[in-house]
Protein 1
Amino acid sequence: MILSRIGGPLSLAFLGFCFHANAASDVLRLSNSRLQIGLDRDHGTLVELVNLATRHNLLEAAESQPGLWQIEFEGDAMPLKPGDAQAFQVVRLPGKPAAARLLWTGFTGRATGLQVEAVVRLDEELPVSRWTVRALAPGAHGIRRVHFPRVGNIARQPQERLAVPMWMGQLAADPRALLSGKTGQGARLEWAYPGLLSLQCLAFYAEPGTGLYLAASDTAAFRKTFVMFGDKAGSVGCETVHLPEQRELSALDWQLPYEVVLGSFGGDWVTAAEQYRAWATNQTWATQSRLARGVVPGWITNTALWLWNRGRSDAVLTPAVALQQRLKLPVSVFWHWWHGCSYDAGFPEYLPPREGTEEFKRATAAAHDHDVRALVYMNQRLWGMTTKSWSDEGAERYAVKGLDGKIQPEIYNTFTRQACAAMCMGTEFWRHKYAGLAERAVLDLGVDGIYMDQACTSLACYDPSHGHPRGGGTYWMQGFRTMQEDLRQRCGPTAAGGRQPVALAGEGCGEPWLPYLDLMLSLQVSKERYAALDGWETIPFFHAVYHPYSVTYGNYSSLTMPPYDDLWPAEFAPKEPLRLLDRKFSRQFLMEQARAFVWGQQPTLANFLPAHLEERKEEIEYVLKLAALRARATTYLLRGTYLRPPEFRAPASMLEMSRLSIYAGQQGGLTEFKKEYPLVWAGAWRAPNGNVAVALASIADEPMDLALTVDPKYYGISPRARVVRIDELGSQPMGRLAPKSALKVTLPSRSACLLEFSR
Ligand SMILES: [Zn+2]
């Protein structure tokens, strides 16, 4: 450490002075035209990360800086750190771009003979550096986890923000408060990839200002976590944690099989998303995504509105037909609780359907006669541990095992507390079982697709009998690919034709699943309805990177109390499931629909009854209006690339919000709160032909007059571009943009439109 040679307790101000005074000799600096990094020559700690455009050093001098790495060994509680090395050298590598090699040697005890080597290279153009690490460990134990690079003491800035692509994406307005923890003792926030982290980057920045950008360029989707950590002194840092494939346990040489990208950007989370997008959309998962290849079934891309109902066909397909007759555009069905087993307990005993095979088949055939198609729910990793099939089929052997070799039971059903086990996608047994069930649902029952719950998640499995590397690796994604290929093969179009290809949907979103899933369920547009306020707001981060490569849909948005699964115990059943919610929550419903619309998702309505067409006319009409408008604008809202929306002032309002679990039961379980939200929501999209459109949705009761500041340069359009207003009824010209003056638009109450700028 830099400070160890200064010695003694010193004031921070004095330390800062010493740091700078010694900096020239103690710090090795590397730079390109946009970024400079500084590594201390004693231990290789990263002490400077300077955005050269703003001259801002993202790191501040501090009494203690975390070392550049930590290595955790199998069966050893104490991690190894750079300070444990008796010798360290850092050398500048010849040539351009600037690069350095760091080598730690002279470890003793358990790590005798170990050498740790890191290489850092500046990018040729971007304000980022690229890092790799390697451990040469003769005779050492197996490596369990490698923390690298570790970055500490991120300099405090005003108005800090942290953007994390947690599935759709989320933004913290006060990340330092979150990282100080509930008790102020510090907190560690971790996001696993592939899974809840839908793409490999984080952005920590000042709004507006300079940001820290942490990413990985791993196209094989190895298991890893991205971490932000804080301490009680208010200092925060970040790291990525890698899980070496344990088949390398006995190997003498482990090398990180991808690069970690660490750097800066100037702007906001959209800028960070654009920086990531420039790399990500050139990778296989984007170019080979099902939407880009044009293999998503036509009925999915043509769906104007999803209906998400639960139960027997008369509660699901019949309302869908009624809704479609009203909308006069394709309505498709997202169908839960069709299966013979109880929800969250009896999986995977889906067959036969609860209303009986023949009745179910008749109902799906009748829906097809009305051109209504359905995805049915099948969880792609849970097996109920109290089911008969669990013991009959010996499923335990193929379940995911933790580090201790045991199953970690998951309990979702709060009424019965019945446990489920996560099945291992790395086992042929589970892949075969799931594909076989899906095949029967598609071929025997006539459903059009499968919603694979929990698909955009993965787990580390440590069962040595499964034949995959223990812990880290790529076996989950490889297993998923193999399983979906098998499933599609089994359900594929017949040689004689006539049958459409099966549609596969997954929960959440995630870049490695883009080539395998036709659509991704993105419920965070309605996050307040199912999650307590936690300091994070939903943002369309995944959509900003991958929108033209995936179909996103889904919304918890509902006008009623939840339904009740009649296979659950009768004693917990509510007196009146699907009772209408108080109208004071209607604005919440409208906002959820507005967000999904401006963020380019297919609209979804949950728990719909045909009676709502009259009983909740205004709310349903809003949904139908957005669906009709979206159907006219799929070049933007399905195929478009996300752009930062123009700035405008719109009033905000205190909204009455409801939170409700599907396990509401007899107690009702409705939580209420009030929170301020804008009354107008906006997104902006570039069509494949280069035209740009701004999508606006108002949830206000009164007309809204807006003045938009449009940046023609950022949008790549003429400062005098022709403007056309598109609404659910048609298009009308609005003249041209006028340089340096705001674009004025009036939105009628509860309405939406697109403002299209032609190139
Ligand atoms: Zn396994």
Protein 2
Amino acid sequence: MSVNTSRVQVQFWGTRGSLARPGRRTLRYGGNTSCVQVTSPKGSLVVIDCGTGAHDLGRSLLAEARGPLRGSILFSHTHWDHIQGLPFFLPVYKEQNHLRILGYEGARHGLANILTSQMESPFFPIGLKEVPANVKIEELKEKSFNIGSVRVDSCMANHPGVCAGYRLSTAGGSIAFFPIVLILLGVMVAVNWRRRHAAAMAVLNSESPESSWTAADLLPRSAYSHRVTAKELAQHTKGV
Ligand SMILES: [Zn+2]
């Protein structure tokens, strides 16, 4: 892939949490679950999460490809809304493609085990080990690493199980992806992370359309696994 820009490119293919919600209410921001495409100025492709948005992303990548596709998929965590698009990510069905899958352990079950399990019968007719593309799954141990020309720094999120947020640094700017936090659901992007971090957080503290719920929605959901308490929300809002 060649990119004729000096800036990092970011495209959102899915930003919704928990459940894909196509329909009139999600026309503007889309109804697909988490999937973000990042392309560095040097052409390194990093897909962050593979929710249902990965289907359209895969179609787009194949339509644009002028040869074998090389890219990496970086998982924030293995909850269903972040991995369920992988079986429908069409580049895995082309044998010339090379895909590197990275993520931290799937809450004690292992990343490879989690990803292959969701494609086992009776859940899906084609196993992940049977797909034609060259797919390599790597369980991350380090907090900082490189994906091609992209430097990645991670930090763990306040979220059930193992869940990481990432900062991707390129020669053309940096982006930060923080998929889900107990006190806030959504996607945070800050081009030039250090300068705009506060601004990005301020945007998300409003009713973020990239989220499943507004703050008002969240408060009664204290029994949900991604629970939020009024105290946590108040502390977070106050601290930004
Ligand atoms: Zn989750």
